[in-house]
Amino acid sequence: VENFGKISDRTFDFAEGLNIICEENGWGKSTLAAFIRVMLYGFENERKRDDLENERKRYRPWQGGVYGGQLELRAGEKTYLVTRTFGNKADEDTFELRDAKTNVVSEHYSQHIGEELFGIDRSSFDRTVFISQNDCTTAVTDGINAKIGNLTECLSDISDYEKVMDRLTDLLNSMTPSRKTGALSKMKSRISELDTSVRGTDAVDAAMKVLVGKRAAKKEEYKALKDEQEELQKKQEQLGTYKDLQAKKELYETLCRGYEERKQKAEQAKAYFSGKLPSDELEDYMEDSTKLSTAGQIMSVYRLDEAQQERFLELSEVFREGVPEREELEEQKQRIDQLQELQLQYLQQTRLQKVQTQNAKPRIVSLLFIAGIIFIILGIWVGFIGFAAGIICIITGLVLKRTKKRPVEEKTEETDYEGRMESCLTELRSFLAGYYPVQDLGPDEAAKKLYQLEKDVQDYKGLYERTEKYKEALKICNEQTSKIKAYFSQLGMTVENDISRQLFDIQAHLQEYRHCERELKDAAAAKEKFECSEDFERIQNMKVMETEISMEALATSMNKNTEQLELVHQDILSYNRQIEQYQEKSDELGEEKHELEHLREVYGQDTKKYERLKKTKELLEQAKTSFTARYSQPLQESFEAYYQMIAGKDGTAYHLDANTNLTVEEMGRQHETRFLSTSYQDLTGICMRMALVDAMFSDEKPFVVFDDPFADFDQQKITGGLEFLKQISTKYQVVYFTCHESRS
Amino acid sequence: MTANFDKEKASERKTELLHTFQRMIQYASENGVEAVIIAGDLFDTKVVSAVARNTVYQAVINHPEMTFYYLKGNHDADSFLDHLEEIPDNLKLFDTVWKSYTANEKTAGNICITGVELNADNSGTVYHTLTLDTDKFNIVVLHGQESNSAAKDHTEEISLKELKNKGIDYLALGHIHSYKKETLDARGVYCYPGCMEGRGFDECGEHGFVLLDIDEQKHTMKTEFIPIAYRNLYTVPVDISGCANTSEIAQRIHRVLEKEDIFAKHLLKIVLEGCVDVECEKDTQLLAKQFENDYYFLKIYDESRLKVDYSIFMQDESLKGEFIRTVMNQSDLSEEEKAVIVRYGMQALAGEEIR
To answer: Does A590 touch chain B (CB under 8 A)?
Structure first.
């Protein structure tokens, strides 16, 4: 030991057989035992923080130095030297294996030399060949079982048995049909759910069948109603046709009546003309009549009343020699103007002479002027006489004024106003004399006469013209009257007083006749057209309906039928909807049925798998039992032998089951050994360990380490224990540590 | 549908079935087909979806140039016809008594289509009441399972024997979902066209309809099976004998599929057959994953047997050896069960996943 715990730089040699190291407490016996184990298996509990539990920390050299040491051992025919140093961490550790004879580095074993050499893990090592202080009891580990079965080559097989069983258990649990969480249970539940649902298929089908039946009944009803509707429509059509024909018949009768009426009317209208009907010349006579009327109107307009006739006669007498021309009258009127001018001039001349002689009379002049103006103004309103008087007054005034102003002139031809006046007057008188008796007419009278003449001319001309127009109209009137009368006689009609009216009557009658004729023609055409139509024959052959139903009654029936049809149709639609719903449900059920079939198939497969897995587990357990049973008997025997050695009595009360569990039989019942006293627990533990070691190592025996295992034994058992050590040391190299001589 | 599709694929396949029907009608229209005979099972469920109903109805009314002869089958629900306000003129139906139609009324008038819907009441008597004009070309339509014995109580069975020498030229049958054409007698043949799309792996192979070309003058006919299915279903057996692991099995499957040359749009069921060692590592889920993207639908059935060489374990002192010997000695287990249990136990002991 280089440095390990409190042990430093020490060498220990172990002989064949029993090696007893009896040292007092604190010497380092447990440390040395731990050293041997660590050299083979390394440290335990490296992750623990507690220095006591963490072996690397626990056995760190007290005095420092290289942590580790060497272990020489023999395996088979070879001797090896194991050198190990330990750092603070596992990766700082070193391991070296050399052939002790040749000192050549060997690769026969790795740093897991413990497992490789003994074929068991550290736990199994601790439970068998390494009996540490205060830990004599044991329990069979998978590693021990594996070692017992001599199956180191396939350690994973039995050593993982518990894991395998756990996995199988987990798998079975995950599939189990008996727990809700199991896949089969869930599947079964779903199958049951689907089954219940799918079982409703029949109910759905039955309901659908009922509904389909009801719908079929309704369809029948609908069909019957449709037939009824058709029948009603047919009747309606027939009635319609009948009514139509009836209406047409009535129409035909109306047409016939109309035709007869019109015929009669036309004949009546024709009768007016007593034989000969006026033709187009009537229009000419109507024009003549118009002319006659116009002439009559002209005559009435231009007809002279008595006074006018008298006047016309009077004037005719005046103008028997002819009527003066306008130019002549104008000429005479100028002559009067001239005469008046001359009169004025003459008056002025006379007044001037008078003023000159008598300082004339201005007042008279002014007055004459004023009077002249007044007369002129009045003349405009009153008439020619006033006007003339005004002129005269002004002329007189002017003459007087002139007379007043002018100096008295000598009488020349030109100034011989009187002569000239006389001459004019003479001519005037001469002109007027052709119409009136005009002897000794003064200028004023002559003027008046001339104006009278002018008026008479005017009157005469007017009356003459009227007379002429009247005559002309009369002539026309007579002519037309004769013509029309002749026409009337041609027509064979008596002439009435008012032939124009008579003509209008004829025209009116003719128009009426023609209108009647047209109407008759139209009526005849309509009648003929109707008679040529297809309906005429039907009308002719038309029979009276025997049981005539009224249109109203039919319409009522139709309405009732339509309402019923609508109701039945609604019912059918309602059934359709219900059936659709059931169909949807049936669809869902169909899908569920498929799912159910699929699930049943899967369930069947999985159930089979589950059962087979259960069987697998069962058979695996059975195999394991058989497997362990193969060594349980020798184990039992071995245990009993060692028990006899230590306790000095029979160990048949102890039983070992197939799972290598030790029980003790007391009072007819088997109890676990943990209920025994500490010394018996240690005793059975030691015996069991050695029995296991016997079973595990049938060929090459390992060394066995006992770290003061008999501390709790009584003297008898210590004696037995020491005997036990002696016995086993014949087969095993035994390293026995104790602190008391009584136990050595 | 029995292929265990997920909902999405199941719905897609339903649509494809209708589409295939439409394609068949389109084919008929394009090729001047005058009559379409449906010998039952137009729908395979009692419940007919509105879409299916309308698709068929529209196909009928949109093709007045064709006459549809529709004989109801055991799967056909009345609901299809029940939903029709009125039967289109070009949809001819049959009854529970023989009903005949002349297919070529406008021309020679010598092709006669006769059919009857079988039920419990008439199935025994229909054969005696069938009378055909032998001068005509006679097509007889029936729905049921062919049978060579005289049917008595079997409603859905058709006695071919009873139909011989009746003057039938072509016996159009419906019920079986795969194409089959055989001789009926010296004059006629009988034929099941099968369904137009396979619906499950029990309906593998090509599906379609039969095109019947009749020379009405010469009284002869040519029949041709027209494949129309959009997708076919195939079951491919793969012998995996001797394979030691999943990888080797995959290679074996791959080699078989290469020879089969199945298009990716089809549906495939691979059945593993043969005998493998009990210690063969075989993961069918992994295999399915490996090939499922190559086809519209793929599933793997493992029907391979396990081979256990018990002699190897006779001297095996390990727990495994003990276990196998224990299993071997179980007289109440069949060899197959023993093999499976051995496999489970070995997988468990080896720390492998238990399959």
So the answer is: yes
Sign of CA dihedral A168, A173, A176, A181: negative
> In whole angstroms, what is the distance from residue B195 CA to residue B18 CA?
12
Separation between Cα atoms, residue A281 and residue A240, nearest integer Å: 54
- How far, in Å, are A601, B24, B208 from residue B231 at the CA level? 26, 14, 11
Strands A78-85 and A94-99: antiparallel
- The secondary structure element, H or E, covering residue B161 is helix B160-163
The string over A632-641, giving b where at least 16 C-beta atoms fall within 10 Å of a residue's C-beta and e elsewhere, is beebbebbbb
Longest dimension (CA), chain B: 91
Element (H, E) at B138: strand B137-143
Place of tokens 């000794």: A440
Q: How many angstroms separate the CA of residue B198 from the nearest CA in chain A?
A: 17
CA distance A57 to A61: 9
Tell me which residue in B10, B318, B330 faces A154 most closely, judged by beta carbons. Answer: B318
> pLDDT tens digit string along A155-209?
446 667 888 888 899 999 999 988 888 999 999 899 988 988 888 888 888 888 8
Output the six-digit token pair for B353: 């996943």
Residues of A in contact with B349 (CB under 8 A): 156-157, 160, 164, 620
Backbone angles phi, psi at B97, to 5 degrees: -125, 155
CA–centroid distance for A402 within its chain: 121
φ, ψ of residue A311 to 5 degrees: the values are: -60, -45
Whether residues B319 and A216 touch (CB distance < 8 A) is answered with no
Cα pseudo-dihedral A563, A569, A572, A573, rounded to 10:
-120
Give the HSE-up count for residue B39: Cα atoms under 13 Å, Cβ half-sphere.
29
Residue of B nearest to A217 (CA): B82
* A345 close to B (CB below 8 A): no
CB atoms B46 and A205 under 8 Å: yes
Picking from B231, B200, B280, the residue whose alpha carbon sits closest to that of residue B4 is B200
Half-sphere exposure of A730 (CA within 13 A, CB side): 4
pTM summary value: 0.52
Using only C-alpha atoms, chain A has a radius of gyration, in whole angstroms, of 87
Structure tokens at A196: 């219940």
Give me the numbers of helices (H) and strands (E) for chain B, helices first please: 10, 18
Each residue of B265-317: pLDDT tens digit?
A: 999 999 999 999 888 888 999 999 999 999 999 999 999 988 888 887 777 77
Q: Are B35 and B211 in contact (CB under 8 A)?
A: no
